[in-house]
Amino acid sequence: MTLKHIKMQVTAKITGIKYKVICSPDLTKIEFTDFDINEAPSSCIVTDNNHSYAISKWVSPKRTRSYPYERVYNTLNFSKKITVIPIIKDEGAKGDQDFIQWDTVSLMSLLDIFVIFAFYNKADKIGNKITNQQFDNQYILEKIKEISQYHSSALHWNLNELNMNLHDLIDKSKNFYDKIEKEMNVKLHNPSGIERFKNKIGKDVSLFILFSREKSENAQAREFITIQPIESLATLTKAKITITNYLGGKYFFTVDEIDIAEDAISLIESKHSKNSILPSKGDIKDGLLKMILYSNISEVDANSKLLKSKAILNLTSTKLEGIIGSESPVKEITEFFISNKFSETQIEFIENLFKEANENQFTVILKNAQ
How many CB atoms lie within 10 A of CB 211? Predict the structure, then answer.
């Protein structure tokens, strides 16, 4: 039975993460003494004597901007993973102002990633906004050194940083934005917003969790009423999914499609392209990070009924002809590549994507959007 035009609430539990990454690229290696977070690629390897770290950086604390999940995904093959996230980003009074959220921290902890909570101390001006914001590189280098000598888990580091340093970092961010506003002669958001954020999250992580969770639930509710382009979805069924993990983290997502058949539910993440034969790699890897979660679900409840779950990554395009999946016979996959005139690069990427899906027991489907 396929559900159409029905919205439902889904809850799920994850007891641990087991996942093999195949689609990550070779990352640029940079010596620690030459490393500048502002000049470095979005994902790279930093080496310091006998130590190596896979480092990614976010350009906003908001996860829906600039494919941060792709940047994080590209580092997951390495044992020591660090991500740099600005705690606040202000683009000007007529632009966005975003704040770090607990569920981002919790997800990074679940993926065993050390978070360096960072602040911007420089920027350029374009019109009535600021751009090219730059982190305090010396601060980042000091934190990398600290992590190199840290022998507890990423979870422990992330919680300790929030408890010990978050208020100080908020003050630094506020002060630097005040300085940037005066030097650039550009109007930024009222600093009282940063003070409210500081006061609401308090000095106790539990208050930060409550504050962020309320914002995440509101964002989830807004996304819930936003329908994907009609040509990219087969069922037009959306569902809120709230995933709880063993760390106490909760992740509020909206599943693009669900399909329920007897005692099983398919959680379908859909990525669509109108102008290209495939969605962008950024889009696909954003979907893969969802697959890491969905393929590790141990228990799922849909409208108070326990179900088995299946994770599916749906890639659609108006330019594709036919349909194949990661479980299709090799002959069918080869014919699909030929009929759709895939390049060698596209073939290699999709073959690796299918290997990753099969290795981690989820399904990838490529099909025409109609």
Answer: 18
Task: Give the residue from 346, 348, 302, 358 showing the smallest Cα distance to 12.
Answer: 302
State the Rg of the chain over Cα. Answer: 21
pLDDT tens for the chain, 370 residues long, are 444 445 577 899 998 889 999 999 999 999 999 999 999 999 999 999 888 999 999 999 987 767 899 999 999 999 999 999 999 999 888 888 999 988 788 889 889 999 999 999 999 988 888 999 999 999 999 999 999 999 999 989 998 998 889 899 999 999 999 999 999 999 999 999 899 888 877 666 777 777 666 666 666 555 555 544 443 444 546 777 888 887 766 777 778 888 888 888 999 999 999 989 999 999 999 999 999 999 999 889 988 889 999 999 999 999 999 999 999 999 999 999 999 999 999 999 999 999 999 999 999 999 998 7
Q: Phi and psi of 64, rounded to 5°?
A: -90, 5
What token pair was written down for 193?
């917003």
| The pTM of the whole model exceeds 0.70 | yes
358 vs 120, 263, 278, 290, 352, CA distance in Å?
41, 22, 20, 16, 10
- Six token digits for residue 115: 């978070």
Show the DSSP H helices in the chain as ranges: 68-73, 102-110, 137-148, 154-184, 192-201, 205-224, 281-294, 330-339, 344-360
Structure tokens at 118: 């960072």
